[in-house]
Design goal:
By secondary structure, the chain is mainly alpha-helical. It has 3 helices and no strands. Helix 1 (2-105) packs antiparallel against helix 2 (110-130), helix 1 (2-105) packs parallel to helix 3 (138-164) and helix 2 runs antiparallel to helix 3 (138-164).
């Protein structure tokens, strides 16, 4: 019985060793494939990390853009409000000029009436320029405002001078 056991074991060892030779080549191919697969998996993992990092940066950039857009919208709103306040103040100045020009027209002299007509024409020109306030670009705003302010100042001085005569 012992002999049979030993023979069985030796036979199994020989069969195994004969089969191992064939498996060695396939095992090598499998190891090579596994190594190649491992490298490819590492590359995939690295590329996935790069994509995730880029997505996070893109999301951050989008958040920054959204924040800047919000700030731009706020600035544009404030500019529109400032222009509206300017327009209202200018309309008040026009109303004050209208009152003074009306007072000048009430004088009985022909010179006063003639001066009032000329002054009213200049007043109407300023009013027409004010109607274009919303179309004034940011670049030309300072020049527009300076021109309107200067026109108001000159007209108010001329109206006051005409009332004194």
């Amino acid at each position: 019985m012992r002999t049979t056991l030993w023979v069985s074991m030796i036979t199994a060892a020989l069969v195994s060793s004969a089969g191992c030779h064939k498996k060695d080549e396939s095992a090598k191919a499998m190891d090579k494939a596994a190594s190649s697969t491992g490298k490819a998996q590492d590359n995939v993992n690295e590329q996935a990390k790069d994509v995730n990092r880029e997505q996070k940066e893109a999301a951050k950039d989008q958040a920054d853009v959204a924040k800047q857009q919000g700030e731009l919208n706020q600035a544009e709103t404030e500019l529109a409000q400032a222009r509206d306040r300017y327009r209202l103040a200018a309309k008040q100045r026009l109303a004050n000029l209208d009152t003074k020009i009306h007072d000048l027209e009430q004088k009985a002299t022909a010179t006063a009436k003639d001066n009032a007509a000329k002054l009213r024409t200049r007043r109407d020109e300023i009013a027409a320029r004010l109607d274009t306030i919303s179309s004034q670009g940011q670049a030309g705003w300072d020049n527009f405002k300076k021109d309107v302010d200067d026109s108001f100042d000159k007209l108010e001085k001329d109206v006051d001078d005409a009332l004194k005569k």
